[in-house]
Design brief:
The protein is mostly helical. Helix content is 87%, strand content 0%. It is built from two helices and no strands.
Length: 61
Amino acid sequence: MNYKKLYLVSLAIMVFALLLMGINGTFYEMNDWVIRIVGIVMMINLVVLVYSFMKYKQKDT
């Protein structure tokens, strides 16, 4: 499995989710269900991000 691609995709998803959260707090007030879904995606993505990062770094050494 290519852990580098998985890491980069999960990192991009996390950045996008953080941008949505930042937009909600500063510029535009989004619906509650949108923020809840983004939060759930962030929690799941955090597990994938850490797993892929650890496997990618472990494969390098």
